[in-house]
Write a structure and sequence with these properties.
10% strand; mainly alpha; single chain; three-stranded antiparallel sheet; two-stranded antiparallel sheet
C-alpha cells in the first residue's frame, strides 16, 4: 500500500497540469483560434499570445506550479468546508466508542428490560471495533487512491447517513448483531476519514502545508469529543431525570437524529469542496454566483445583465426620440432596456477544456516572464 512518489512530483507546491493532461502548444493555438469569439480567446488574441511561438512553446517545456501559503490555505473556503465534513465524519464513532459498553449493557445486557448476558461481552466488542478502525484507515485510504479523495469521502459520509437512519429501528427491535454490524460499519468510515484526511489536505494545499493544516483540522477531533460527548450525555440524563428508564430507546433515538443532521450537513459541505486544482482555479466570469461540478461537468449560475431593444412605449418617450433624431431619417430611436437575470450553464467537456487551456497559457506565460525578463 506504500508507493513512491511519481516522477516529477513537486514537494513544495501543487502541479497545475497532470502529466497526461499537458496540452500541446499546437492544440492550444488551434483551440484559441477556433474560439476567438469567446472572452478568453479575445484576451489571448489581443495579447498576441495565440500567435507568438515563444509563448505557445512554454507549456511544452514547463509545468506551472501553484504555491499556496499557509494563510491562504487556512482562509480558503474549501479548507473550512473540509473541516465541517471531517467533524461530521468522526462525531458519531467518537461518542459511541466512549459509551459502547454502557449502551450494550443498557439495551442488550443486564441493565436491559429483560436482564441477560449480552451475546458478546462489551470489552470484546470494543476490541473488535478497534480492528475495524484499523481496517478503515488502510482500506479507505487505498480506495481513495483509486477513485479519488472527494468521491471516497462522500461515500463514507453517505454510508454513515445510512447507518444512522437504520440505527433507531435496529435498537427498537433489540437486534444485537444488527446493532453491532452498524457500529462496526460506521467505525470503518471513522477510521477511513482519519487515514485519508492528510492525503486530502496534501492534494489540495501542497505538502508544505500538510502538517500545519492537519494540526488545525484535528481540532475537530477535540471539538467532536467534548461537544459530542456532552450533548449525548446531556440528552440521556435529561430523559432519566424526567422519569425515563435507562433501557428505553427514545433517548438514543434523539441522539441519533442530531448526529444524522450533522452528517447530512457534512455531506453537503463535502459536495462543495473544490478538491482538484482545476476546479479551484477554473476562470470565473465576473457575473458568476455559483459553480460546482455535476457528474463530471462544470455547472455554474450567472447573474448577468442583458439588453433588450424596445420602441418608445409612451407619447412622451416618442416625442423625446423624435427630438433626439437629428439626422431626420425615417427610423426612430430605440431604447436598450437593461435587466438582470439568473442564468444557468452546463459546460460541455470541449468548452471547459478550451477555457482551461486559455487560462494555462496565460498562467504559464506569466510564470516564465517572471523568471526571465523579456529582451
Amino acid at each position: 500500500f506504500i508507493c513512491p512518489p511519481p516522477p516529477g512530483h513537486n514537494q513544495d507546491g501543487i502541479p497545475m497540469v497532470d502529466e497526461a493532461d499537458i496540452p500541446q502548444p499546437k492544440r492550444i493555438g488551434a483551440a484559441v483560434g477556433a474560439d476567438s469569439g469567446t472572452k478568453g480567446g479575445s484576451e489571448l488574441a489581443s495579447a498576441g499570445i495565440d500567435k507568438n511561438p515563444r509563448y505557445l512553446a512554454i507549456l511544452g517545456s514547463e509545468r506551472p506550479i501553484l504555491y499556496i501559503s499557509l494563510a491562504e490555505a487556512l482562509r480558503s473556503r474549501d479548507f473550512w468546508l473540509l473541516y465541517m465534513s471531517f467533524l461530521a465524519n468522526i462525531v458519531f464513532c467518537l461518542v459511541i466508542l466512549s459509551n459502547l459498553p454502557k449502551i450494550i449493557n443498557r439495551l442488550f445486557g443486564m441493565g436491559s428490560r429483560d436482564p441477560q448476558e449480552p451475546p458478546l461481552p462489551a470489552y470484546l466488542a470494543v476490541s473488535i471495533e478497534g480492528g475495524f478502525n484499523m481496517a478503515g484507515r488502510v482500506l479507505v485510504g487505498l480506495l481513495s487512491d483509486i477513485v479519488g479523495r472527494k468521491t471516497t469521502f462522500l461515500m463514507i459520509l453517505l454510508t454513515q447517513v445510512g447507518v444512522l437512519v437504520c440505527m433507531p429501528f435496529v435498537i427498537q427491535s433489540e437486534n444485537f448483531w444488527g446493532f453491532m454490524t452498524l457500529v462496526w460499519t460506521a467505525t470503518v468510515c471513522y477510521g477511513g476519514g482519519f487515514g485519508m484526511i492528510p492525503a486530502f489536505i496534501a492534494d489540495m494545499f501542497g505538502i508544505n502545508n500538510t502538517s500545519s493544516c492537519h494540526g488545525v483540522i484535528l481540532t475537530a477531533w477535540s471539538l467532536a469529543s467534548i461537544c459530542g460527548g456532552l450533548a449525548f450525555t446531556g440528552v440521556i440524563n435529561h430523559y432519566i431525570d424526567n422519569g425515563s428508564m435507562p433501557y428505553e430507546t427514545k433517548m438514543y433515538t434523539v441522539n441519533f437524529v442530531w448526529m444524522l443532521i450533522l452528517v447530512i450537513v457534512g455531506f453537503v459541505c463535502c459536495l462543495f469542496v473544490r478538491s482538484s486544482i482545476r476546479d479551484r482555479l477554473f476562470p470565473a466570469p465576473p457575473d458568476q454566483v455559483l459553480r460546482m461540478r455535476v457528474f463530471g461537468r462544470v455547472f455554474r449560475v450567472l447573474y448577468s445583465v442583458w439588453h433588450e431593444n424596445a420602441p418608445p412605449s409612451t407619447p412622451l418617450e416618442s416625442d423625446y426620440a423624435t427630438a433626439q433624431n437629428t439626422d431626420n431619417s425615417a427610423s426612430f430611436l430605440q431604447y436598450r432596456i437593461r435587466r438582470r437575470q439568473l442564468r444557468c450553464e452546463l459546460l460541455t467537456k470541449e468548452q471547459e477544456q478550451v477555457e482551461w487551456e486559455e487560462y494555462l497559457v496565460l498562467r504559464a506565460v506569466q510564470h516564465r516572464l517572471m523568471k526571465e525578463p523579456d529582451v
